[in-house]
Design goal:
The chain is α/β, with parallel strands linked by helices and 157 residues long. It contains 4 helices and 7 strands; from the N terminus they run βββαβαβαββα. It is globular.
Length: 157
């Protein structure tokens, strides 16, 4: 199955596949508003502003699986991120990234990341960099700051 056929849920509950992101460089991130890594939203937004016109899209999937750090509703999470960090990239509905209820996007990412950092997601702000053809190029741990991914993004743009 192609990445672009994966079905995701938008913040408003509607569902669609990722077809609109074909031929884009993607950075997919599972996030949480109450995490110690939450300030990474600043770096993510900076990357988005700098490279969106060159084909970068950031896809944000809030997740409450790690220490209950995203317990708010989808709308509350979105309002917090826009109000506090000014994010303008796409946020989706909350997902599970591990376990039997893992979302389709994270099942796909884990299955197709070819051993990059293992199969499970260890914590919030794990990042997947995907090229314009839908191939997972790199997986970054939560400790990797968005700024440290910039050189890898530039190579793909």
């Amino acid at each position: 199955m192609s990445l672009y056929k994966v079905v995701v849920e938008n913040m408003d509950g509607t569902k669609n596949n990722l077809e609109e992101y074909k031929n884009k460089v993607l950075l997919v991130v599972n996030t949480a508003t109450g995490c110690g890594f939450t300030p990474q939203y600043v770096g993510l937004q900076n990357l988005y502003e700098k490279y969106k016109d060159k084909g970068l899209e950031i896809l944000d999937f809030p997740c409450n699986q790690f220490a209950n750090q995203a317990k708010e509703s989808n709308n509350e999470i979105h309002d917090f991120c826009v109000g506090r960090f000014g994010i303008k990239f796409k946020q989706f509905a909350k997902v599970d990234v591990n376990g039997k209820d893992s979302s389709e996007i994270y099942k796909y990412l884990k299955k197709n990341s070819k051993g990059l950092l293992g199969k499970s997601i260890k914590w919030n702000f794990t990042k997947f960099l995907i090229d314009r053809d839908g191939n997972i190029v790199k997986r970054f741990s939560p400790m990797v700051e968005p700024e440290d991914i910039e050189k890898d993004i530039i190579k793909l743009l």
